[in-house]
Amino acid sequence: MKSFSMFEWAQNSADWLVYEVLKLEKGQHLSEALNFFIYDTTKILILLFVVVFLMGIVNSYFPIDKVKNYLSRNKLYGSEYLMASLFGVVTPFCSCSSVPLFIGFVKGGIPLGVTFAFLITSPLVNEVAIGLFVGLFGLKTTIIYVISGVLLGTISGIILQKLNLESYLTPWVQEVLADAQREQDIFQAEKQSFNHRLRIIWAEVITILIGILPYVLIGIAIGGLMHGYIPEGFFEQYMDKDNLFAVPIATILAIPMYSNASGILPVVQVLVTKGIPIGTAIAFMMGVVGLSLPEAMLLKKVMTLKLIAIFFGVVTLCIILSGYVFNMIL
Asked: What is the Cα–Cα distance from 216 to 23, expressed in whole angstroms?
């Protein structure tokens, strides 16, 4: 499953290892699951390393307290949530690939609600998905979808921020934040050189990678099994247009699935051609790309189960409302 050309080499390497070295046949459940696991593990670990390393450099010169103070003292009237959602639009990641950036934002002192706004929008809306959407459903539907995706992230982020959920971050995150603050105090007090800062930042990156690696592997393994073994048309029978509860059912049943927006859009087209209302089909798509068990597994390292449940609950509710609105206006 390709997300964008930056990682085409990783996909090619996974293809070579699975189909050439291991001699597994394309299209088989095992080969597809293994290919997915190798590709996504490579991609997510690289993203996690790069983001945490870069945020470590940024934090060494721009302390977390300064970021928090700026956001608390300046009246941005909710624009920070909108900006985070728009940033999500230009970062074409699937839900699991967005988690490294989420960790980087939290480590950088960005408010949790603003970080959630990015995490929600990033997998839902990107330029590849927009291009496919225009070709499959036309400009009007695409514009409505993009606006709804951005609003979904923005509104959900605002709601989650108002709930004051910082206390539900895991002790591991609290420790990472405390370590980052201690490092910044040392950097500021001792006026350390860039090379010396790099050594400290590198050690912190390795610590974070080791801490989250088991969750990454388990989460991607779950995603690989789902990607390889769950048939695409399995849930169609539950989305009949005459079913009043088709939208919430479609959203909830989408959670075990796992794909990016470009990968699930052809499935959405098939659903629509079979008579399933477009709002129901899009709610299913949003559930697949915005909510997934592998994402929950990755987030387990940074969030308590209660916070994950609240996050999934708020996003699920917003997706369901969006599906009904789509069905009314399209």
From this structure: 26
Residue 269 gets the label, from left (phi > 0), alpha (psi -120 to 50) or beta, of: alpha
* Amino acid at position 166, single letter: E
Q: How many domains does the chain have?
A: 1
Is 227 within 8 Å of 259 (Cβ atoms)? yes
Considering the domain boundaries, does residue 1 fall inside one? Answer: no
Residue 233 lies in a domain: yes
Assigned token pair, 71: 């956001």
Whole-number pLDDT of residue 94: 62
Q: Which domain holds residue 87?
A: 7-329
CA 169 to chain centre: 17
Distance CA 194, CA 37 (A): 36
Tell whether 257 is covered by a domain. Answer: yes
Q: Give pLDDT tens digits for 204-229.
A: 778 777 876 776 677 677 667 766 66
What single-letter amino acid sits at 147? I
Residues in the chain: 330
212 domain-assigned: yes
State the distance between the two ends of the chain, measured CA to CA, in whole angstroms.
30
Beta bridge partners, 236, equal none
- Quickly tell me which residue has 């087209």 as its tokens: 269
